[in-house]
Amino acid sequence: MTCRSYGVRIPLLCCLLLWLSGHGIAWACESDDACIAPNSWKLGIAVGIGARTNPLVDGDPIPLVVLPDVAWYGENAYFDNGEVGYQWLLRSDVTTELFVRANRERSYFAFWHPANIVLSVNTSAADVIGSPLQPGDSDGESPAPRDSISINDISSRKWTADAGFRVNWNGSDSLLSAAVAGDPLGVHQGYYAQLKYQYRWQWDDWRFAANASVTYKSEKLIDYYYGIDGEDTANSSLWYAADHALQTSVGLLLNKSLSKHWRWVGRVQLSTLGSGMTDSPLVSKDYVASGFIGFGYQF
User: Which UniProt keywords apply (predicted)?
Assistant: First the structure.
């Protein structure tokens, strides 16, 4: 199979980066199963156990159980795990591309959870119908403003897209990328810029990929999702006008081939969020951690 060095991907590792990083191009081509031939699909799935923490007040951890890996690369256009792009300046040492993908900030605010579908087995009738009024409770009067706020109290944050430009500098076993992206739908009207370095190596049958990144997110982006105003609460003491944020992230991915199609895969990632975000009363943690361990199958 003929592979293009700028279209190379690490099998089944990219699916583990769905939440926190972009598509996995630009690795040196070492084996057929590490590449995508032009005008062909690459399909895989990873099944295991994992989760990503939610930094928001009353935010539930996000389960990572089944992670799909779907990619297609043409001569210039590509689709890679939800990202659509167009590449040019296709050289072995550098590539450039335009890309569009869903913005990931809202993933903290909306995700499936069993508690949203069925009642807990520990739920009592009083929890469902409402507890009788106790002495001192008001009846028919507006409650006093709360001194805290959570994702259950605020107005809806909308989905939007990222559209941007990325440059990849490719080494034999490393990748340095720089990207900047804005909001083409005008939801938050902000932008972000990211510098990311990835390095991979092999030890016996194990393959490793380490990554580190720094991401700047603009004031408008952070304020739309994590700022608080009168639409969220009447308690003005909780209102918060967010500032820009500088976020860092480090991670490690690993896999071991078990057969032609099966691999053992694992991943850990830790990201810091920056004071512009963490100073918000809506945010209870200054980091996001995620981990996954399981088996991957490449079709």
Answer: Cell outer membrane, Membrane, Signal
